[in-house]
């Protein structure tokens, strides 16, 4: 496409910008907090630069501390612009809250851990035979309005320089400004197997890997924090992208 980079060309950020992007947190507050402290310390050491911290989404589910994770990220990060993207797990949770849609799928994929982190008494509800609708009502009672507002406001993507940040990936052959929400949140194989250019270098999570993937056209940061792996972050400055 005219004006777009080839996948083999060097992606870069503006010279005065530093970005630290990190992968799927999934309720692992114990791994998130030390990372945020390091990001803030680095920003404080060079206040003349524009510092941006980017979460590629999936804050909730599977790990034990979804509520503290949301609360922490809703509070911002000193010295940094904090960009928190929506992941497919936030989308499932919000669908459940709105209408109960997809309840079984969300609960089976870590939603029960999120409910427990917000103080929903799952043991009592199970003993009383409470179904998905009862769990939804209980969740609406315990979820802070601040958290709900924060989650509803999460963008699907963020672009800076030659980089495009998103949760799952993008559909090859489609301009970045015309992507479908479903693909941004859920796409896998069509995106992961594409070796050509997307127009910008994509930074994403969603598909767990043992170690961060650095390809010419994309970087995958989901290293399975909730499955015992690290919470991986990448530092991007100029034409350099390295593990942070």
TrEMBL record:
MF term (GO), any: protein serine/threonine phosphatase activity
Protein origin, superkingdom: Bacteria
Cross-referenced Pfam families: Metallophos
InterPro entries: Ap4A_hydrolase, Calcineurin-like_PHP, Metallo-depent_PP-like, Ser/Thr-sp_prot-phosphatase
EC number(s) from the headed UniProt entry: 3.1.3.16
Keywords of the record: Hydrolase
Record carries keyword Hydrolase: yes
TM stretches of this protein: none
Domain Serine/threonine specific protein phosphatases, chain residue ranges per copy: 85-90
Protein name according to UniProt: Serine/threonine protein phosphatase 1
Organism this protein belongs to: Labrys monachus
């Amino acid at each position: 496409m005219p004006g777009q980079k080839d996948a083999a060309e060097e992606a870069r950020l503006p010279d005065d910008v530093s970005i630290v992007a990190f992968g799927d947190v999934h309720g692992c507050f114990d791994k998130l907090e030390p990372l945020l402290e390091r990001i803030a310390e680095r920003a404080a050491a060079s206040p003349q630069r524009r510092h941006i911290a980017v979460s590629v989404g999936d804050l909730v589910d599977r790990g034990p501390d979804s509520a503290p994770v949301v609360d922490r990220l809703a509070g911002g990060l000193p010295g940094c612009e904090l960009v928190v993207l929506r992941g497919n797990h936030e989308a499932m949770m919000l669908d459940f809250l709105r209408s109960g849609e997809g309840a079984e799928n969300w609960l089976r994929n870590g939603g029960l851990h999120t409910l427990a982190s917000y103080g929903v008494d799952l043991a009592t509800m199970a003993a009383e035979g409470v179904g998905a609708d009862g769990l939804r009502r209980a969740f609406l009672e315990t979820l802070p309005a601040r958290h709900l507002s924060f989650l509803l406001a999460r963008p699907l993507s963020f672009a800076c320089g030659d980089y495009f940040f998103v949760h799952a990936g993008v559909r090859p052959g489609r301009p970045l400004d015309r992507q479908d929400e479903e693909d941004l949140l859920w796409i896998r194989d069509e995106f992961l197997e594409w070796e050509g250019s997307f127009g910008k270098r994509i930074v994403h999570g969603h598909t767990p890997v043992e170690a961060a993937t650095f390809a010419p056209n994309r970087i995958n940061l989901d290293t399975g924090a909730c499955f015992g792996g690290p919470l991986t972050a990448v530092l991007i400055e100029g034409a350099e992208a390295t593990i942070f």
